Amino acid sequence: MGKNNAGEEVQNKQVILRDYVRSYPKESDLYISTSTIKLQVPQGSNGVLVKNLYLSCDPVMQFQMRKADYHMSGYYYYVPGAPINGFGVAKVLDSGHPDFSAGDLVWGTTGWEEYSLIQNPGKLFKIHHTDVPLSYYTGILGMPGITAYAGIFEIGALKKGECVFISAASGAVGQLAGQFAKLLGCYVVGSAGSQEKVDLLKNKLGFDDAFNYKEEPDLDATLKRYFPEGIDFYLEHVGGKMLDAVLLNMKVYGRIAVCGMISQYNLDQPEALKNLLHIAFKRLSIKGFTHRDYHHIYPKILETVVPYIRENKVVYVEDIVEGLENGPAALVGLFRGRNFGKQVVTVAHE
Amino acid sequence: MGKNNAGEEVQNKQVILRDYVRSYPKESDLYISTSTIKLQVPQGSNGVLVKNLYLSCDPVMQFQMRKADYHMSGYYYYVPGAPINGFGVAKVLDSGHPDFSAGDLVWGTTGWEEYSLIQNPGKLFKIHHTDVPLSYYTGILGMPGITAYAGIFEIGALKKGECVFISAASGAVGQLAGQFAKLLGCYVVGSAGSQEKVDLLKNKLGFDDAFNYKEEPDLDATLKRYFPEGIDFYLEHVGGKMLDAVLLNMKVYGRIAVCGMISQYNLDQPEALKNLLHIAFKRLSIKGFTHRDYHHIYPKILETVVPYIRENKVVYVEDIVEGLENGPAALVGLFRGRNFGKQVVTVAHE
């Protein structure tokens, strides 16, 4: 890919939503199209024109592919015929905004396309530490990192020796959350959807133990095996049957931080939970949260996590596919759990 | 009923569990039997021998009629062939415990019988304020009072102008919780299961509004009608469909305090909740609790609530049946929502 000059008009490959999705998204719900874009911010705009480098595949994008649901206000829904968007890392080529200049590296919401005009760059984060892989700003130093940090350090406020369970543990958030909990001296068990992921958790990510939920016919019994005394803290990603089994196995006064329920996102009929009664019986505290509530502590997160990366105290596993044209398969694969670690799409190297 | 003398052996009418209950309890799951009891604490025991005055009908007793479930540790299960027990108000006839003397009035766990030997009286509360109806110590000044106080003042920490929804609002806890929230300057709406109960909430208990959930085909639409801006705080008693609709109508950062889910207690197949995802999307905080966590603030609760009663700032509606032999019907009626206010059984007047 050649060097682009500001003002030049270039071809712009894009990932377009074909039509609203109703159930599990399929690769054919998206298609690649090419338009043209002028590499210049329009006169009078305070936007920025960026070249996209890495795009993040995130579970919530399943919702954004659906027709807007009035209950889900706060989310941007994709528009059929237009490119989808999500978190990404990009390089500023031209700026109409006083905080950004050509050459800046940023992360935040951008389009699934080679170049994007970001009309409202106020929410972009400028990237200062570039001695770590730039793709990390879609993961450990991006939204999943904020989520894991908030879940473990802020909401969980974990104490040494506490028993912690993490579902979707090899995913973008789970792998970090587990490592953070280990750094705090907790006993940490993770669940994942393949033997390969289980091995990763135990052998590379330092979890005390891990299991493949697909091979466990009785999740209640499974959790009793790993947590004979019960669970102090559960980082909830998956919902459904797993949450139901967890409710049975929480300690009295146990805490659950909920950042997602990926198993339920595409079901027409969600799974019936039998054990919600235990919220009262066990006096559980359950707190839903999203990364958006913790953007104000991002500087503190960087101060903590960047040294962890440099000192190899945490590792971060990414599943990177090369090329925007391979984005739709990667994204749909995430919804099926086919990714191995954080799913990233490389659009261009810097 | 004549005056009893300590040491006398008397007949003791009891309510006995016939066999473990599997689904909705029926009146025939209980029967009345008469044994004898010596009105004296056995030599060397530090128990108390009490004459029972008022017995409390509480939702949790449905569980206690079942075969012990290892998940529900912390609850006492009834034994077939033996009298059931629950909260009640009683008078001490004889005491082997240094904290209690003959003539003391107490409330706490006692048997469903005329006289009980309470082996471990350490958990009984002594009654000091007797210018209020003694039956109130099964309700507003007993377990439901502690629950309502904790839910509204401690967990809810409600602020003036907040929008509060209370289900099972005419029940033992709900009617109080609603009045407490009104005293704090909140907008309070309650749901109940009959027009008569709705009228009670609006006309006598000072709720801003109320509805009969049995006549609302679309609870989501109902809640939107009463809470166009959403709900700040929900005191959860009922679970199931109501909770599912509430999740859709909570404000972002809304709080839910869960003291029970009575609609789900007797279902073989609990209702599927579709909207648990909103815990994350709306960043809800959900906290389960029971009165047992708040016994240490009971003196503070009395200091607040006794003056409220004396000054008519709160009223308390009781549904009192006379006679232990009418206890089984009253108890089973509670599980069906047949009670109008706090369900109490009078065993004897002091």
Automatic annotation (TrEMBL), chains A, B:
<dbReference type="InterPro" id="IPR036291">
    <property type="entry name" value="NAD(P)-bd_dom_sf"/>
</dbReference>
<dbReference type="InterPro" id="IPR041694">
    <property type="entry name" value="ADH_N_2"/>
</dbReference>
<dbReference type="InterPro" id="IPR011032">
    <property type="entry name" value="GroES-like_sf"/>
</dbReference>
<dbReference type="InterPro" id="IPR045010">
    <property type="entry name" value="MDR_fam"/>
</dbReference>
<dbReference type="Pfam" id="PF16884">
    <property type="entry name" value="ADH_N_2"/>
</dbReference>
<feature type="domain" description="Enoyl reductase (ER)">
    <location>
        <begin position="33"/>
        <end position="345"/>
    </location>
</feature>
<dbReference type="InterPro" id="IPR013149">
    <property type="entry name" value="ADH-like_C"/>
</dbReference>
<dbReference type="InterPro" id="IPR020843">
    <property type="entry name" value="ER"/>
</dbReference>
<dbReference type="Pfam" id="PF00107">
    <property type="entry name" value="ADH_zinc_N"/>
</dbReference>
<dbReference type="GO" id="GO:0032440">
    <property type="term" value="F:2-alkenal reductase [NAD(P)H] activity"/>
</dbReference>
<keyword id="KW-0560">Oxidoreductase</keyword>
<protein>
    <recommendedName>
        <fullName>Enoyl reductase (ER) domain-containing protein</fullName>
    </recommendedName>
</protein>
